[in-house]
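Troubleshooting log. The previous structure file for this entry was overwritten by mistake, so regenerating from the original sequence record. Sequence copied from the archived sheet and checked twice against the printout by T.R.
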Amino acid sequence: MCGINGIIKKYSSEVEIEKKLQVMNQRIIHRGPDEDGFFIHQVEDTAIGFAMRRLSIIDLSSGKQPIFTEDKSKVIVFNGEIYNYKVLKTELESLGIIFHTTSDTEVILKMYEKYGTNSFSRLDGMFAFSIYDKTSEKIFIVRDFFGEKPLYYTNTAEGLIWASELKSIMPIMNSRPEIDKTGLSLYFQLTYIPAPYSIYEGISKLEADHYIEYDLKTHQILIQKVNMETKAQIKEISFATAKDEVHDLVQKSVISRSVSDVPIGTFLSGGVDSSIVSWCLAKNLDEKINTFSIGFEKKSFDETDKSKTVAKLIGSNHHEFIISEKDLTKYTDEILLNFDEPFADSSALPSFLVAKKTSGFVKVALTGDGGDEIFGGYNKYLIGNINKRYTGLVPEKLHKNIVRFSDIFTRQKEDKRGLKFKIRKSLHSLDYGNDFYYNIIKLGFSNVEMGEYFKSAAFDSNPLLRYKQKLPAPLTLSDFREVDRMISLEGDMIVKVDRTSMLTSLECRAPFLNKELWNYTKTLPEEYLMKGSNKKYILKKAFEEYFPEEFLDKSKQGFGVPVGDWLKYGMRKELESFIDNEFLKQQDLFKVDAIVTMVKNHLSSLEDHSFKVWTFYCFQKWYKNIYAQL
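Regenerated output below.
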C-alpha cells in the first residue's frame, strides 16, 4: 500500500523531472511513510519519471520499488495489494520464470512481461500502477476493477502527469486550473464527484477497470477497458446451492485479503457485513484477531452493543472507542481538506477516527464495505417497485400536486432523518420517465433546486448524462447495483475509506469488493438477493447459523453524524462567513439571495436544510482553503 506519481514531459531533463517528483512525493508521505522510490529516464527529448511512497505490508525486506525485469527493459511502481499474487506466481514459476522478491509488485511486472496488457484482467486486488516498457516505448497506467485505489491525471501539450492524489499534481501545474462545470454540478447534486470527472477542468480521474496507454514515440494517449464485460446470464440454480456457494466465496475472499506480513484486524460495527467479515477472519486465523469499533456519547447514535456481541462470539481482542462531538469536530478541517476537492459525505469524520484509533494497533484492517452493493442491501433499492406501483396508479399531474402538498407536511426544523425525511426524499425521487434511481442517489440538490440556487452559466444542466448513456433507464436491482458501482461506490464510498484510512497510514481491505463475488451475484435471480423487502437475503442466510437468532436481521443506522446541528452552533461563524454577499458575488456561482436565505433559514431553525447546507459548507471550505490559495 502506498501512493504513486508520474510525469512524462517533452523537451525536459531528468534533473527537472526529479525535482518535480520530489515535490509530488512529499505531498503524499502519509500514504507511505516507510520509504520512497524513483525511476527517471530520458527518451530522446522527453523525460519520464515514476515515484512512489510505500507503506510496507508484504515483503518488508525486498519489496522496495521501483522493480525491474532482469534486462531492465520494464519497470513498475505500484500502489495497492494483489490478493491472488501467490497463485499467479506459482503459475509463472511453472513456466520457468524466476523471481527475485516475494512481493506482489514483481508478480504484476512478470505477468505483464509474459502476457502483456491481457494480464491486467487476471489481477484480483485493489491497485493503481505504472509500467514503462522500453521495448515498445509505451507507458501503461492501470486502475483496479472497483476503483479502490485512486488515480488522477492531466494530459497536456507538454505531456502527462498522474498521481494517487490531487495534492501531488497541483504544485507542479503551470497555472491554476478553472473549476470544471460538470464536476461542480455533480458535486452539488451527489455530494461527491465520480470518475472520470474532478473539480478541475483538464484533470480527470481514471475510471475504475481502465488503463491509460501512452505512446512515447507519437505522444498519443489511449484509454482502454481492462475487463470486457458481457451481459450476465441468470443461472438456473437452487437457493440452497447458491447459498452454499456464497458462503464459500465470501470466506475465500476474506482469506485472500488476510495475507499480510504485519498485524491485521477488522472494523466491527456490529452490522451484517462487518460481523460476517470478522467471523470469517477469526475462523481462519490461528491466533485471536483484533476487532475495532467506534461508539458515540450520544446514545441515539451508539450501537456498540452489537459489536460487543460479535466480539464475544468470535473471541476477539476487542477495542472500543467512545467518541464525542468534540472529537469529531476537532479533525473536521484535516479530514475535509485531505480530499483535495469538495466532498460532503459526513460519515468521513467517524471513518477517520476509527482508522486513527485502529492504526495505533495494526497496519491492516478488513472492512465490510461493498456488502450492500454486492448483495443488495440498501433501502434505496426498494425504489424500483415503489416507482412502478406509484406511477401506475397516480397520474403525473396529480403527483406534482402531491409533492407540493407533502413539502409543506414534511417540512422539518431540525436534522431528523425519520419518516418525514424518507417520505420527502421518496416523493422527490419518483419519476415518470424512469429517472427515479438517478434521482434517489442525489443526496445534495435536485434538478429543480439547482435552478433555484445556482447561476446557469456556471453549471452543467445535465451532469449525469455520461452515466445515463451507459445505463439509460435503470429498472432492476441489477441495474441499480451497476449504477452504484459506476457512480456511488467509486465516487463516494471507496474515496471516503481510502482517504481517511491513508491519512492515518492504515491499509483498509474490503473482502466484499471482489470481482469474482460481484460477477457471481450478477448471475443469481434477484429474489435471492432481495426477497420482498428483506435485503441481502442470501448473504444473511449463508451465515445466520453462526450468529444469535435474528441477529443479522437487526437494522443498523450507520455512521450518521448530526451535521445539521453542528452548522448551527460550533461551525456557525465559519458558515456565516461563507454567505458574505461580496464573497458570493465574487465567486459568481450562486444566486446570492436564494442561497443566503436557505442558509439563514437553516441557522434560525425555520426549516432544516442539513444536507444542502453541509454540501454548500464543504464546497466553500475547499474553495477558501485550497482553490483560493493556488
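DSSP finds 27 helices and 17 strands in the chain. Archived copy saved in two places this time.
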